[in-house]
Amino acid sequence: MTARIRWGVLGVAGIATRKVIPAMKQCALGEVAGIASREGTKAEQAAQALGIPKAYGSYEDLLADPTIDAIYNPLPNHLHVPWSIRAAEAGKHVLCEKPIALSSAECRDLIAARDRTGVKMAEAFMVRTHPQWLRTFEIVRSGRIGELRSISGFFSYHNADPRNIRNVAAYGGGGVMDIGCYPITISRWIFGEEPVRVLAAVDRDPVMKTDRLASAVLEFPSGQSIFTCSTQLVPYQRMQFYGTKGRVEVPIPFNAPPDRPCRILIDDGSDPFGGGILTEEFPVCDQYTIQADAFARAIQEELPVPVPLEDALKNMEVIERILGTA
What we know:
Structural class: alpha/beta
Helix content: 25-40%
Order of helices and strands: EHEHEHEHEHEHEHEEEEEEEHH
Number of domains: 2
């Protein structure tokens, strides 16, 4: 029997303690063996609350532990690359939260570190392993909706707190980096192509200087993807895929719930009032559990990781073109 992957978590970020770690504790192929914080008491409190065996008072101590096989890195965006590189140099495999870097140049540094150390390294786009997305990919690629010509997406929430890390420009804050990256990665994946042209309109908060509303048109060889993302609008999300014969709609594309079924809508185009819509439902699952097991399997069986750094680089290049930083 293959040994279970022993995970170490860098930091006590909310996404880790509230969503990812509880999900990873349900994994078949791995276990959360340790958690680190720059404040030892925070690590100890998180470890006790989440049932994690080891707590470390520094990230360095966790990376130095030979019993840890892989690192989950949910640190703030500007710390993704430096600590992922340090983890790789310590011989640890790395699953790093999106966006994996602040720039394409940083992403290339990660690729160099991965190649130099020989570890597995991936961007944590959990959506790419969720059953609703695997099915959407299958339906579109099968030709059931004809030739894919257009994708539309929307992702928003409201957070105008200048103290929140997502609203600090120097730390990689802003809507495109935080949530716009999702419709970008999905569009690239479903089309199976890279955009040849990118057009964007970006509105920045006058005080925080982060992008609070952005709309983009990605022109692909086979069609177009249009999306809007915002950090200061009513919370909402949706993705739609339009073909020459039909349409697929994903009602909750990104924050798929772990406690109730997900569904997608497949429209054959026969009735504009919805008579031709078929609903497919997916059993309750947690996309963070699936993601961690997929990464663990890649380690155990020497398989490609779900979202490799080369893909992360392409995504970051599109983000830079939207924000005008390329």
